[in-house]
Structure formats: C-alpha cells, structure tokens
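We close this part of the discussion by returning to an individual protein. In the encoding step, the backbone of a single protein was reduced to a row of integers, each denoting a local shape. The sequence in question and its structure tokens are set out directly beneath this paragraph.
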Amino acid sequence: MRTVAVTKIGSLRDPDEAKRGRVDVVDFPDQALGPEDVRIRVAYAAICGSDPHLAEGFFGTDVPIGLGHEISGVIEALGERAHRNGLQVGDRVAGNFLRFCGTCRPCQDGRQQFCEHIQDYNRPGMAETITWHESQIYRLPDDVTLLRGCLLEPTSVAVRIADKTRIRVGERVLICGGGPIGQLALQVMRMYGATSLTMIEPIAERREMALRHGAEHVIDPTTEDQATRAGEITDGRGYDVVIDASGSPRAVRGLLDLAAKGGTVVYSAMYPETFEMPLNLSDYLYLKELTLTGVFVSPYAFPRALQVLPHLDIDELTTAVFPLERAVDAFAAHVGGRHPKVVIRCNDLGDD
C-alpha cells in the first residue's frame, strides 16, 4: 500500500539539505480488517500544519512515520460486525483519526481527549487505503464532495475551539493566524454571533480571505501596532475571546495584552516542545482574571462539525491538489506557504 511517510527526521524548512527532514511515498503493509472495522479507499488527504512537526520528531523518531489524518474516501469493505451505524460499501465518508476506547476512566468521565488507548487506531491516512473502527467514521452529506469532505477533521477542531471559548452572542473576538484552522475558526465564530471579529495575519492574501469570509477587521503585525489597532477596534476594552491559531512563539507573546478583563484566551495550535512563554500571574490572572486554555484533539465535536461543514465557504482551502505520486512536491508547496491548504489526491474516485 503506497503511503506518504517521513523517512528522515529533521525540519522540512532546514536550509541545510543534509539536516533537512524528508518525506517520501513508501510501501506500507495493508492494515488488517477487524470484525468492527471499515476499510476506506482514500480519495483526498489534506496536509495539516502538524504534519511537519512529525518530521521533526515531535511524536517519535522511528522512521518511516506514516502521515495523514484529514481524509475522505469511499468504503470498500466492512468487517462482519461493522453495521451498527448503517454504513455500507460505496458510502462516501470522512472521519476522526483517533478511536476513543470508551472504557478507560477518562472516556467514562467525559474526557475522551485523554483516552488511555488513543493511539490504537492512529493509522496513516495519506495512503491508498485506511482501515478504521466504525466508530471513527461519518457518512458525508450528499451536498459535500469528497474534496470538501477531507476538511471534516479540521472543521472539528474549529468546533472544539468554539467549545473552549464558551463564547456568548455579541462578544468581541480576535483570531491570530490565518491558516486553515484560523480561517475555519473565523467562520464558526461568525456563526456564534461574534462582533469586532478581527484576524491578525502577516500574509496579505490570507487577510483578504478572512475579510471575504466574515472578518470585520484585519491587522498586519509586520506593519501595524497590533495593540493600538486592537484598542481602536474595541474602544480600549480589548477582546472578550482571543484565539491563537498560529502556533508561532513570536505571535503569541503579545496576545494576552489584547484580551479584555475577564476574557478567555485559547491556544489552539501545536507549539514547539521547548517554548516557554513568560506569564505574569499578577497582571493576567489576578488583575485581569483571564481564562487560559488549550486544544489537543476534538472529542464530541465531529457530529456537529458534520452539520456545520455544508454551511462553510471552504473552496479556497481546496484549490491546491497534488496526486499521491507528487507528495514530495505537495509538502514543498505546504512549507512554502503559497497556498492556505494543500491536498493530496490518493485515488481518483470521480466525485469532483
């Protein structure tokens, strides 16, 4: 089975070719079909911002490391007991790359994100096929193509971000980072009735995209003083909700100053393992009573993400599509930052 995998540990952005990480298309063994499993012929697998982190050894260094968790495809085989959700061969589906066991203490306590067996079905989806447990799989609505369907997983992240904000209608919202998660979170926040909806983003094309999809204001942190602009937009009150979707240590440092007293700040990206942000407890937690929280994965969010997906304008996130055999070029395009999202076509299933 052809699979996109990290074959050399190292940053994909390292200017030294000898130290640079490497991604290749390699052969992986076919995954066994258990009695409650579903085999999917993968149509599309989108590159996530976390994938380059795997090349850096964030989750281990034993190569090859299979990649891909934002997928869509068509069911081609069902285990003998994989029928409780009404799934059938030929169904167009997407899903959650993690299987929550439902039996460990965190799962029983309503905290699936800390499932003690969360890695059991963490299988690479940037491949010709993938085999998942039936509980991980969701049938796509008829009006959602397979190409759009591969964004179900990042949409679930945007839904989970909204959950963590505990936003109320009319609250002022700031999003830092105009990549896919930032753009999706912006549209979801708009659905929640966010006001003064603002995006901080250094790339002009991404700021323009944000304005097309609901942002009332954008800030270029390379040419504008973001604290001054935030004060102008919020009449000096700050933002009730601040979301970081950038994952940039440089970008996150000043975000606490943009939050209103009593506001909520959600760190929703993956950050360098060694990054430690200074935090003045007196200023931010005592005097301002800020609530600081993060996002790991998306428990309980997929059914709602499936409901939201047809209402999102996401075509701009699916314009850069590379065939599986050009996965190396796809990752080069992703690292180059020219496209807001890069998608790999693993099989041509004729849906689009």
